[in-house]
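INFO  loader      accepted 1 record
INFO  loader      residues=286
INFO  predictor   begin
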Amino acid sequence: MLDIQRVVVVGAGTMGHGIAQVAARAGLRVWLCDTTQLAVNTGLDRIAANLEAGVARGKLTAAERTATLTRLHGEPDLQAAAAQADLLIEAVPENAELKRRIFALAAEVAPETAIFATNTSSIPLRTLASALPRPGQLVGLHFFNPVHIQPLLEVVRADVTSPETLERALAFARHIGKDPIVVRDVAGFASSRLGLALGLEAIRMLEEGVADAEAIDQAMVLGYRHPMGPLALTDLIGLDVRLAIAETLAREIDPRRFAPPQLLRDMVAAGKLGKKTGEGFYRYDP
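INFO  predictor   done
INFO  writer      dumping tokens
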């Protein structure tokens, strides 16, 4: 039997609300935490909308939707939420100091057996472990967007991660219906490193005028059977997120291979972050 029954998700944004949804859908009690009640409510509303759409498409019943919602709790107080946790997953922006601060505050009140997981897509876990009194209970759980649809879950094992923590994390991943892969704690892990390399090269090709965005994406969709082109995927992930990952990998691995193109920097500076702002490499309806 799974020994994780109470999950706290810190960050109610794009990734956080999705993680909370799949955990609650799998029968676990979930606390969704963010800095304000408004942010928490917005995350809960997005979950409710996703579930309603699932009912309309016949993916779940109305009774299953209602049961999932009853297992969700909104909580703007981090420590009040963390005190409940068998597993705490942070899904906040790619800022190592912010993640360390969250872990340190949560660890003051969390049960001694609680696992601390980070949804980072690029930051090495070794830079976060010092925030915890029991670093062996740290693991990476890198989900993919949209969380309620994508089956992959990248489970990152740091040098300090205990075998017990890894096994509990894998059991949780399978319980919520994900297909986990285990990777070593190297910046960018496996998926982000490979995906970023393709995405950055696509941006450079656009910058150099090799082809327009649609043609570059179609080359990968039609020629390599990718479900989505690298520029459309960057819009979905968020250009700011891609930039943060590139800067991390440039610093940690190779400053030449992972140097962010100037076009990416310019678009982020202009607020063109992709689908979430209505404009990136493509334009989107509000």
